[in-house]
Amino acid sequence: MGQFLHEFFNPLDFLRSAPQVWNGFLFNLKLMVVAEAFILVLALALAIVRGLPGRGAAPLRWLAIAYTDVFRGTPLLLVLFMVQGFATLNYAGLSSDTLFRNGAIALILVYTAYVTEVYRAGIESVHPSQRMAARSLGLSYMQTMRYVVLPQAIRRVVPPLLNDFIGLQKDTVLITVIGLTEALAAANFFQSDYANFTGLTVTAVFFIFLTIPLARFTDHIIKEREKRERAQGV
Amino acid sequence: MSANGHFVSIQGVRKRFDNLEVLHGIDLDVGEHNVVCLIGASGSGKSTLLRCINLLERVDAGTIVVDGETITSAKVDVNRLRQKIGIVFQAYNLFPHMTVLQNLTLAPRKALGVSRADSLDRARTLLRRIGLEEKADEFPDRLSGGQQQRVAIARALAMEPKLMLLDEITSALDPQLIGEVLELVRELAESGMTMIVATHEMSFAREVANKICFLDAGVIHEEGTPEEILSAPREERTREFLARVLEAGRL
After folding, report:
1. Total domains present in chain B
2. A26, A132, A211, A217 from A179: Cα distances, Å
3. Quick one: which of B76, B52, B75 has its CA closest to B64?
4. B146: domain range?
5. Which among A138, A230, A232 has CB closest to B159?
6. B1 in Cβ contact with B68 (< 8 Å)
7. What are the angstrom distances between the C-alpha of A12 and each of A16, A183, B150?
8. What CATH code is carried by the domain that includes residue B77?
C-alpha cells in the first residue's frame, strides 16, 4: 500500500510534475476547444441534411448517412493514424502545429459522426405538431427549422452533447501517440525521468477538475430555464 | 372571390391515408364573411378537410378555390398561400420556447417581412383585444389552456388572414375555460372574418354559423342553416348524431 501511494500519490512528485503536465494540458484544452467548435457546427449541418425532405435531397441524405456510418464505426486511434499517414504523404517535416492539426482533424471526423446522431435525436423529439403549426403560419421549411425546431431540439440535447464533449476532452490524450507533447505525454516523460507515476494522477486530476464544473454549469442552466418557462408546481 | 361568387369553393375533394379514404368527395361553398360550422363524430373527416384547405394535407382528387386562387394546383406557392389562411388547432401548438409576444411576432416578421417595431405593435394590439396584454412576456406553459388557445388564435390573426380555420379549438379545454375562447371567436365572426369551424359545441354553432354541415364517413351528409340542421334535421343519421351529442351534454 505504501509503495502504491508513493508511486501514484507522492505529494512532492505531485508538485514537481504539475507544471510540466499543465503545459501539456494546455494543448489538450486548445485541441478540445478548437475541435468542439468545428464539431458542433458540422454535426448540426449534417443532422439538418439528413432530415431534408423530398426525393431530390435523397443523395445528400445518403451521403450524410454514409458519413456517420463510417466514422462512428471506425476507432478513433485508427482514424488518427490514417490522418497522420495521409498528412505525411504531403509534408516533409512534422511541426507541433501539423501534429495539432492532424489530431484536431481526426477528433473532428469521428466526433462529428456521434454528435450528428445526438442532434438528429433532438430534432426528431420535437413533436410534428410544432412543425405543422409553424408551416401553417406560412414559414418555410428552413425557417421552421431555424426558429421553431432547432431551438427546441438543441436545448433538449444539451446533456448528451455535454457527455460527448467530455468524451472528446478525454480522447484528446490519444493525440499523444502521434507525438504531440500533451498532458499524458508530459506525465509519461515525468515518469521516465523520476520513475514515479504521480504525473498520471496529476493528469487525471486536471481532467476531472475540468469536467465537474462544466457538468454543474450545464445542470444550472437547464434548471434556470425550467424555472423560467415551465408552469409552477407541474 | 371565385367565379361562382364564393370565397371558398370546394369540389369533389377526396383524401386517402394508406387504405383508408377519409374524404369521399366533399363539395362545400363558403361565402365571404360567412361562418360555416362542420359537425360530426370524431373520424368523420372534419379535421382532414380543414388541413386540406391549409395544404397541410394534399388532396388526392378535387379542387379547392380560395379567394379566386385554385390552391390545389401543383404550381401554388404553399407558404404564400398559408399566410392568408389561418388555422388554430385543438392542442394550441404554441411555440414553448418563445414568449407570448415572440409567438405572435415570429411569422409576421419572418414570413411577411414586417418590421420588428410594426410586428410588436400589431402583437400588442391583438393581445389587448384578447385581454392578455399583461401576459406578453410569459411563456405559454405558464398560461391556462383557455389563455393559450386565445394566444394561438391571436398568433393566427397576427398574419392578418382572410380565412380562419378552427379545428375543434375547445375540445382540449376544461369546461369553465371554453367560454372565453368561444367569446373571442364570436367577436371574430362579428368582425366579418370568414371562418370554417369544426366544433362539438352545438349551441355555439347555432349562434355564429351561417351554415352548418354534418359530416359523416367522409361526406357532407346534410347541410343547411343552423335552424334546419339543429332543429329540424331531415336525415336519420343527423338526428342520431344530434341525439348522441345531446345525451353526452346531459351526462
Report:
1. 1
2. 15, 53, 25, 33
3. B52
4. 8-250
5. A138
6. yes
7. 6, 18, 69
8. 3.40.50.300
Could you tell me if B99 lies within 8 Å of chain A, comparing CB atoms? no
**What is the CATH number that goes with domain A2-229?**
1.10.3720.10
Residue B113 with chain A: CB contacts under 8 Å: none
- ipTM (interface predicted TM): 0.91
Whole-angstrom distance, CA of residue B13 vs CA of residue B17: 14
Q: Is A158 on the interface with B (CB under 8 A)?
A: no
Domain annotation covers residue B163: yes
CB B21 within 8 A of CB B64: no
- Considering only CB atoms, B89 lies closest to which of A129, A138, A228, namely A129
Domain ranges of chain A: 2-229
Q: Is residue B2 part of a domain?
A: no
Among residues B34, B35, B40, B38, which one has the least CA distance to residue B217?
Answer: B40
- Which tens digit of pLDDT belongs to each residue from A84-122? 888 877 665 667 788 888 899 999 999 999 999 999 999
B4 — pLDDT class (breaks 50, 70, 90): low
**Residue B25 maps to a domain:** yes
Q: How far is A222 from chain B (nearest CA, A)?
A: 13
| Lookup: cell for B25 | 368527395
Alpha helices of chain B — where are they, by DSSP H? Answer: 46-53, 78-83, 100-112, 116-129, 145-157, 175-190, 202-208, 226, 236-250
Instruction: Give domain status of residue B242, yes or no.
Output: yes
Could you tell me whether strands B8-17 and B20-30 are parallel, antiparallel, or unpaired per DSSP bridges? antiparallel
